[in-house]
Design a protein that fits this description.
alpha/beta; six-stranded parallel β-sheet; two-stranded antiparallel sheet; 9 helices; 13% strand
Length: 266
Amino acid sequence: MNRTPVVFIHGTWLHALSWESWAERFAGRGFLARMPGWPGEPAAVREMRTSSERLAGMGLDVLTDHYAGIVRSFETAPVIVGHSVGGLIAQHLIGANIGRAAVAIASAPINDIQLPEPPGRLWAPDRADGSQELVSLSPEQFHHAFANTVAAAESDRLFERYVVPTPRRLIADLGYAGAVRSPRTVVDVGNADRGPLLLISGQEDLLVPDAVTRAAYKQYGDSTAVTDLKQFADRAHSLVIDSGWKFVADYVLGWLEERGLRAYPA
């Protein structure tokens, strides 16, 4: 019997390895778990930190097309689970009827929802211009802006295992510093024929505040398609990788079960 695939899409500053615990847990429940990286993404975190120039010009258009091709390649339509930019891509794809269902966790803003200024000046705002550069985080910046609800020791462990540079062009595509947002940030929120969608936020998230996710949820209000919202108190942008990841993953598994999205389709 064919298993239901689940495609995990990571976001900015994280490597595909950031989904390793999720993939193991979903596979243990019978799903066909896949965590494909970005086009040209090195297999190892250390390699990506030292030789990631091939990703420097990566934009949202390339990423979206890359994952659309992956999702379409399965015989059984997958569930798409995305974090940050991956959550935006998941919404874009399910809105275009690509995939069976989608989960968008701390998703980058869709449509006309405004982006907050990044905490701690993670990059120079006047240079978010789509240039062929990479933006790196220091361990201190990561703890301050990304993993702000965990202790410094845990944040440092997460940084060492998962954190990588991200393309400045991708940041520009999201509209930071007044840059023109990519057309791929546009999501068809009115599509009544799409599969179910779950939006998840962390209420202590500084990079994608809870208000951004609630604003997205409101935009789906006129659609008769299933759209659900789950807010996790005391959780930051690191909610998919920090010590509380299992609570989020298990909530998603429970939601899939409630929506009839099982590992072994009838």
